[in-house]
Amino acid sequence: MSALTKLIAVEAKLFLREPVSLFFVFALPIGLMLVFGLPQRGASGDTPGQHGEQTFLPSLALALTIGMLALFTLPMALGIYRERRILRRLATTPVPPGFLLVAQVVVNLGMGVLGAVVTAIAVRFLLDQPAPANVPGFLLAFVLGVACLFAVGLLIAALAPSARAAQSIGPALFFPLLFLAGTWLPRDQMPAILARIGDYSPLGATVDTIGAAWAGSGPAVPQLLVLAVTAVLCSVLATRFFRWE
């Protein structure tokens, strides 16, 4: 077993030992869908507006899973490792410190994919809704949403001076993004400029593109491009400013 594989295995065990992280990935998205989706189970979906779309709750639940991992779990874990000088100690061993960064991303990505699968199954059998109709479009939207949000999380980890700061910056960014995605107030009821910003925000674009593909349509190309550009830009900045100690 290679050093990277061992690191990934260790990080996966540590992740599974954290009940809060598991709650974010599995329980919270499914609970959200059950609370808001069961009263509408079997409804025709004729309610106008963003919240009336059948695919809004499932796509929001998936975006919530990705966003929690990217903006809460990932920056906090890397901040703790830097604060405790784990990265610095790794630099004195044959194992490159970058391996730990790769292991963190792989574990969180794997948990995000697993959470998405569980959410999709829950949508199908608990809410009696069909599986994603446009599978290639769904996969493309999901991958770009993950890349975008994880890149933002890595940028937070790169800029945060401490684990406590990372714990504060992540939620401070996450909840405004959640609002812009239309969670509490549908975007069709927002002022035009605010709704436009929400359309191209990381969570808003992720929710829209996943929802469109789930319904069988093609994800909007401008939103996919924004996700891709944000992923590349934040990744470059995270690489530029990341500190190992």
TrEMBL record:
Q: Does the keyword NAD apply?
A: no
Q: Where in the cell is it found?
A: Cell membrane; Membrane
According to the UniProt entry, its GO molecular function terms are:
ABC-type transporter activity
Name all ABC transmembrane type-2 domain ranges.
Answer: 20-245
Q: Which GO terms describe its cellular component?
A: ATP-binding cassette (ABC) transporter complex
Keyword annotations: Antibiotic resistance, Cell membrane, Membrane, Transmembrane, Transmembrane helix, Transport
Which is an annotated Pfam family here? ABC2_membrane
Membrane spanning segments where?
Answer: 20-39, 59-78, 99-126, 138-159, 166-185, 224-242
The membrane topology noted for this protein in its Swiss-Prot or TrEMBL record is: Multi-pass membrane protein
Q: Which GO terms describe its biological process?
A: response to antibiotic
Q: Does the keyword Transport apply?
A: yes
Similarity comment: Belongs to the ABC-2 integral membrane protein family.
| Name of the protein this chain belongs to | Transport permease protein
Q: Could you tell me which species this protein originates from?
A: Polymorphospora rubra
What lineage is on file?
Bacteria, Bacillati, Actinomycetota, Actinomycetes, Micromonosporales
